Amino acid sequence: MSQTSHGAAGTLVAAGTWVEIQKVLLQPQERASNVPDDTRATPFVMRVRGFLDADGIVGEQVSVTSLIGRVHEGILIDASPAYEHSFGPVVPELLHIGRITEREDAR
């Protein structure tokens, strides 16, 4: 579950709420034999965000409609999920590339 979960297990979430669901597509025993051992030891999981089609409870099976109109079913894991990605820490060497290019263009 997301670290910023807005719904503990058992919480009722209203239809139309932006949510995240999870569905196991492949169990570990169903994974391909040519994937690394640590990958093969874990289930292959899909996470999808969409609008909840009917009132649902965190931790239970629901259906959602994604922004492109596809309907997905899975376990409701989060209501109003946040975006938590980042591009990581600053790479100081990259900060000077623009200045170096400007100096070279000025020659």
Q: How would you portray this structure in words?
A:
The chain has 107 residues and is an alpha+beta fold. Helices cover 17% and strands 34% of the residues. It contains three helices and six strands, in the order ββαββββαα. The chain has helices at residues 37-40, 92-95, 97-106, and strands at residues 12-13, 18-26, 44-52, 56-57, 61-65, 71-79. The strands form two sheets. Strands 2-3-5-6 form a four-stranded antiparallel beta barrel. The chain has a two-stranded antiparallel ribbon with strand order 1-4. Strand 5 and strand 6 form a beta hairpin. The longest helix is centred in the C-terminal third of the chain and has 10 residues, at 97-106. The protein is extended and about 65 Å long. The model has no long low-confidence stretch (mean pLDDT 90).
Strand content: 25-35%
Number of helices: 3
Uncertain runs with pLDDT below 50, 5 residues or more? none
Strand order of the largest sheet: 2-3-5-6
* Backbone shape: extended
Mean pLDDT: 90
Helix-and-strand structural type: alpha+beta
* Biggest pleated-sheet summary: 4 strands, antiparallel, barrel
